[in-house]
Amino acid sequence: MSTAAVYRGEAQLCSLLDRANTLGGGRVAEIAGSRVTLPVERKFASLETIQAYVDRVLEHEGLPRAVTVRKRKGHAGAHYESLGAVIAIPFGVDWALRGDGRPARAGPPHHPGLARPR
What we know:
This protein has about 120 residues and is α/β, with parallel strands linked by helices. It contains two helices and six strands, in the order αββαββββ. The longest helix has 19 residues.
């Protein structure tokens, strides 16, 4: 499966969750002929909760290198700064605080929610 296909699937899931999160939105979706119950979407509450999550993931993985999370100016997308190990997350856009286990990912800029390495 190509990376682009994965990002298209992620974008489709985000659209389904966005619809389900609206007032009166249904929690059941039909995908490829199967009915799927969508989970209630969890979102990070603040920059501090994102930092705490990143710290727990690094500790769980046994990684010694600290990563800092900071607020990013603008709304274009999250990005990762290799120099200084910083994840910059925009605020004021709905997708930025999605609590899907990936507060910001390094990867190709196929989707506005992905972090782009700098």
